[in-house]
Amino acid sequence: MRIRANFHTHTSFCDGRDTAQAMAEQACAIGFNRLGFSGHMDADIHMDLAAYQKEIFRLREVYAGRLEIFCGVELDNLYDPSVGEGMDYVIGSTHFLDVPSEKPMSVDAGEEEMETLAMEFFDGDYYALARAYYELEAKVYDRLHCTFVGHFDLVTRFNDSMHFLDEEDPRYTGPALDAMEYLVSKDIPFEINCGAVNRGRKKELYPHPYLLRKLKELGGEIVISSDAHQKELLDGGFELAIGSAISCGFTHINLLKRDWKGRICWEQQALR
């Protein structure tokens, strides 16, 4: 099967390399029929929202009949939830932890910041840090009323290089599965996120295969996203993600669409 859409797309409006129009051109060139833009809105990276919406709405008209364009945001768990109002969709992501720091502290800003976060606020206990992350992650739907969950286990971003967690240790998986079970109860899909693998920053997709199998056991739904920050990676990692989903027992993915009244909703696409 082939995926002809991506809903986790960054541009030069935030931390992406290419313009929104360049991304749309690439989407057409590789045979996409849908493209969702999802610029960052968080404490560290946030867009000129009015300019962003104006450009995405312009592109929607330019590509009408060739490419269905959606205007969304990747909204951080600790950012203003009102940002999501009026958007086609919201990716609910947890980048920052709620710690008493003047500077927002992110789990994916760099190894040095991750170590500082652990040492200064969790006495060097990375399992305690992960527990705090998942306790916050469990609130992402209630806080943001997001459309789908972004990179659920982002807290492991530097684990390949720093080796601070055993990702199958109950001290880690317990809080993760508690958060996952709660979010599944909200009928919200989780994305299989290819971004870190695409950029050579991680060996495994998000979620880790152990968590992805548990998601299937819990009855969770999935979206596959490239988390593209440059046009060449707009469909990057899709084959790997499809294989991972199938190996964990998933039979379909979910895609955003507009119904006959123009409302945003989900449709399923078979994986085989």
Description:
The protein is built from ten helices and eleven strands. The protein has a five-stranded parallel β-sheet with strand order 1-2-3-4-7. It is globular, with a radius of gyration of 18 Å. It has 272 residues and is of the alpha/beta class. The protein has one domain: TIM Barrel (Alpha-Beta Barrel).
Task: Give a topology summary.
Layout: E1 5-6, H1 20-29, E2 34-41, H2 49-62, E3 68-76, E4 89-93, E5 96-97, E6 105-106, H3 111-121, H4 126-137, H5 140-144, E7 148-149, H6 159-162, H7 170-184, E8 190-193, H8 195-198, H9 209-217, E9 222-225, H10 238-247, E10 252-258, E11 264-270
Parallel strand pairs: 1-2, 2-3, 3-4, 4-7, 8-9
Antiparallel strand pairs: 5-6, 10-11
What are the key terms here?
272 residues, TIM Barrel, two-stranded antiparallel sheet, alpha/beta
Mean pLDDT, rounded to whole units? 97
* SSE sequence, one letter per element: EHEHEEEEHHHEHHEHHEHEE
How many individual domains?
A: 1
- Helical content band: 25-40%
Shape: globular
- The helix tally amounts to 10
Identify the strand order in the major beta sheet.
Answer: 1-2-3-4-7
In percent, how much strand structure appears in the residues? 15-25%
State the CATH superfamily name.
Answer: Metal-dependent hydrolases
| Poorly predicted regions | none
Task: State the name of the first-level CATH class.
Answer: Alpha Beta
Structural class: alpha/beta
| Overall radius of gyration | 18 Å
Tell me the CATH architecture.
Alpha-Beta Barrel
Mind summarizing the main beta sheet? 5 strands, parallel
Euclidean distance between termini CA atoms = 6 Å
